[in-house]
């Protein structure tokens, strides 16, 4: 009887609205001193990390590869070929790799993380003015883009900005992180173009192929803030999902929590000082006809005493108007390997992905032939 009463008294929609209307996100709950997380953040036990011991034949797969980009200026042909080989194998087997000597200064990486932390740790009254759910805005602060559609909320806040192809005006961005966002995003755009060249060659195509397809045209920057969680066994920082981009460049901090799902196992992504984490997105899996894989991943709730921050830069034009159709690349299909996906626009893909939310299933299934 007691249990029935408790369930009946839980009005999920009202609690979601009440949380959203605070306009201060998960950080606001922490500032209020909560010792128990609200029920809207409770995930089912099946969705919470299940660390099974790895079977002996998987022990050699315990970490994603780290690739040295040599400052993006390769000394000789062999060094470049080795980097391409490493990227090819990582993209086919993991869909994830870390890059070192990537050409972005370590000082800038630290400044970017400081900028994210500074924004999220401002007074609630200051943060509130940027909060909302109008995804057409140049700069948006919110908690959980899929708050009202996902099965459970994530213990995470985010600010986002579309950087390319239509960059925001400086006055559209908060002064506290404006300069570093502009500087860092420029560097990521340059790095992205280099990565798409290497990925093109890894596919056996000309270096310009993916850039000529406008894969590097759009950039969406999401700056995440994962406050310490008082009950980390009940929730997740970011639910299991794959990315709806061509490519993602992730700047992590030293607090670990990112996991990649492969062959039925969750693999922890280790902290590599100064590295950027690169992963293949759904759109690149689609146009490579499954040659490169967009693996699902998640972020565990933060057990540390300090907030974890990360910056995810997605190469996509997202829900912005873009008429270009994308399907499997002609050179990668044949009678023996016919197209596995129907053509779509990036906007249609992103719209479907966003409406579905992070529910643990891949949006790619919807576009399979």
Structural features, described:
29% of the residues lie in helices and 18% in strands. It is α+β, with helices and mostly antiparallel strands and 369 residues long. The chain has a single domain, classed as B-lactam Antibiotic, Isopenicillin N Synthase, Chain (Jelly Rolls), CATH 2.60.120. The strands form three sheets. The chain has an eight-stranded mixed β-sheet. Strand 1, helix 4 and strand 2 form a beta-alpha-beta unit. Helix 4 crosses helix 7 and helix 5 packs across helix 7. The protein is globular and about 55 Å long. The N terminus is likely disordered. GO terms for molecular function: dioxygenase activity; metal ion binding.
Defining key terms:
about 375 residues, alpha+beta, 8-stranded mixed β-sheet, 4-stranded antiparallel β-sheet, 10 helices
CATH architecture: Sandwich
N- to C-terminal distance: 49 Å
Largest sheet: 8 strands, mixed
What are the low-pLDDT stretches, counting only 5+ consecutive residues below 50? 1-8
Overall morphology: globular
Count of DSSP helices?
10
Order of helix and strand elements from N to C terminus: HHHEHEHHEEHHEEEEEEHEEEEH
Q: Report the count of strand segments.
A: 14
> What structural class is derived from the secondary structure elements?
alpha+beta
- Beta content comes to 15-25%
Overall residue-averaged pLDDT value: 93
The percentage helix is 25-40%
Q: Strand order within the widest sheet?
A: 1-2-10-7-12-5-4-3
Q: Please, what is the CATH homologous superfamily?
A: B-lactam Antibiotic, Isopenicillin N Synthase, Chain
Number of domains: 1
């Amino acid at each position: 009887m007691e249990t029935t009463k408790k369930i009946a008294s839980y009005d999920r929609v009202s609690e979601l609205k009440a949380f959203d209307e605070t306009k201060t996100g998960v950080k606001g709950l922490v500032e209020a001193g909560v010792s128990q997380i609200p029920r809207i953040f409770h995930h089912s036990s099946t969705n919470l990390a299940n660390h099974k011991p790895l079977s002996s034949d998987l022990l050699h797969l315990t970490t994603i590869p780290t690739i040295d980009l040599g400052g993006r200026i390769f000394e000789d042909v062999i060094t470049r070929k080795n980097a391409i080989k490493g990227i090819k194998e990582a993209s086919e087997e993991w869909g994830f790799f870390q890059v070192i000597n990537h050409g972005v200064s370590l000082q800038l990486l630290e400044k970017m993380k400081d900028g994210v932390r500074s924004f999220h740790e401002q007074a609630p009254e200051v943060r509130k003015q940027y909060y909302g759910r109008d995804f057409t805005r140049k700069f948006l602060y919110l908690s959980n883009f899929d708050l009202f559609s996902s099965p459970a909320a994530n213990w995470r806040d985010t600010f986002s900005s579309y950087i390319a192809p239509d960059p925001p005006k400086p006055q559209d961005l908060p002064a506290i992180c404006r300069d570093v966002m502009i500087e860092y995003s420029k560097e990521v755009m340059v790095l992205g173009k280099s990565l798409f060249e290497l990925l093109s060659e890894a596919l056996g195509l000309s270096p310009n192929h993916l850039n000529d397809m406008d894969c590097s045209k759009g950039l969406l920057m999401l700056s995440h803030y994962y406050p310490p969680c008082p009950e980390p066994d009940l929730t997740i920082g970011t639910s299991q999902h794959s990315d709806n981009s061509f490519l993602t460049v992730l700047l992590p901090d030293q607090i670990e929590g990112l996991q990649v799902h492969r062959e039925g196992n969750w693999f922890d992504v280790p902290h590599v000082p100064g590295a950027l984490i690169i992963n293949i997105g759904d759109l690149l899996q689609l146009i490579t006809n499954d040659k490169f894989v967009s693996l699902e991943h998640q972020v565990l709730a933060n057990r540390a005493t300090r907030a974890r921050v990360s910056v995810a830069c997605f190469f996509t034009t997202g829900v912005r108007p873009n008429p270009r159709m994308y399907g499997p690349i002609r050179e990668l299909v044949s009678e023996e390997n016919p197209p596995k996906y129907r053509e779509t626009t990036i906007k249609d893909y992103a719209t479907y992905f966003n409406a579905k939310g992070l529910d643990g299933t891949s949006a790619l299934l919807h576009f399979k032939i």
